Amino acid sequence: MRKGLNYKATSGNLAITSVALQDHISRNVMLQNLSQYDPGKTRCRRTSPETHSKVINVKGTVKQQGSQWQDGPGEKEYVLDPASPPLTLAQKMGLVESPARRLTADEWTQVKLRSVHEGESKQPCAICREEFRLRSQVLLSCSHVFHKDCLKAFERFSGRKCCPMCRKEQYETRVIHDGAYLFKERIQACWRGYVVRKWYRHLRKTIPPKDKRLRQRFFERKFQELNDSLVQFCHTDVEAFLNDIDRSASSSRRVFHQFDTEHVLEPQEDEWLKIQEKVIQRDTWDCPICLSALCSPSLGTGRTPHWPQSNRSTVLLSCSHLFHQPCLEAFEAFCLEGQPTCPLCRSLYHKILV
Question: Which of 9, 115, 253, 331 is the right S-S partner for 143, CB 3.0 to 4.6 Å?
């Protein structure tokens, strides 16, 4: 009687065991077929505010919910792996090993902190060797970070789920946005640097420094800028500018010549004496035209300068210049227009023999 009961119990246990194993195998085959032919229908286990009470920012500091920092639209972090199916009867009975336990929110926090401490998001993706920028990236449970598309391609071509860096199998993946945060911060830092440099250049151009030498250089630079701006807006035709100057000078010369012609008066006797005194003080020795020695007249002053002797007569002009009479007459003969002027000072004159 006891043998019959034991046999029935043993046969019942074998039946339950076989049914549990058959159910486990059929579920695994079904899940493999679904993941192979329709992977888009597999559900991902996302984190929610009710499930996870902590959110990690890009610098690795933990902020509780309700703080000022919140994820933007479309930037929530969530676990990418499909949700674990319920345990089969074989797994509950211990006939088959149960799947690994999922990471909790605190464990993901520690993984994220370790990844931030190692600077995984600051380095380029280990698969494509490009920066993350605004592309989607995933954090593995081994704290390594990759592009989401790069990891999918690696898993598809390798045929197994293995970390490309540490070769850890059966890892969990979590979508993060640390690379996008760092990229945005870099852009903002570049913009702030540009604004500050622009403000500093404007400050240097408008406010003079307190140091004496720097202040001198500041005003020299300001003056040079003003000069360059004036030259830039001026007429740059040099030939035309010089021609205008020549025409203006000739016109002024004609006006002064006419004025001198109308108002020049012959000096009186006492004025001629003053002119002769100027000649003696100048101590002129040669004729400015022929560059030869003049004669030694007394000039009516009672003093005879020590000049070389010459056989040509000397002419004194009212502008206090001396010439040989033949030289001055030859010069006057060459002056075709108007009254001749002094060969030295170009002024109208009266002359006397001395």
Answer: 115
pLDDT tens digits, residue range 214-231? 889 989 988 888 888 877
| CA angle, residues 185, 186, 189, in degrees to nearest 5 | 85
CB 172 within 8 A of CB 140: yes
- Cβ-contact 142, 148 below 8 angstroms: no
Give the list of residues 6+ apart from residue 10 with CB closer than 8 angstroms, or none.
Answer: none
* Nearest-angstrom CA–CA distance, 183 and 139: 17
What is the secondary structure of 32-64 as a DSSP string?
A: HHHHHH-GGGSPB----TTT--EEE-TTS-EEE
Q: With a cut of 60, say whether residue 211 has pLDDT above it.
A: yes
Strand partners, 314: 324
- The predicted-structure confidence for 23-63, as pLDDT tens digits, reads as follows 667 766 565 555 554 444 444 444 444 444 344 443 444 34
Distance, CA of 323 to CA of 318 (rounded, Å): 12
Of 281, 276, 346, 278, nearest to 314 (Cα)?
276
- For the record, the structure tokens of 64 come out as 């509780």
| The amino acid at 320 | S
Which of the two residues, 30 and 191, has the higher pLDDT score? Answer: 191
- Among residues 285, 281, 282, the alpha carbon closest in space to that of 295 is found at 285
Q: Evaluate if pTM is beyond 0.70.
A: no
Range in 91-95, 153-157, 254-258, 296-300 the model is least confident about:
296-300
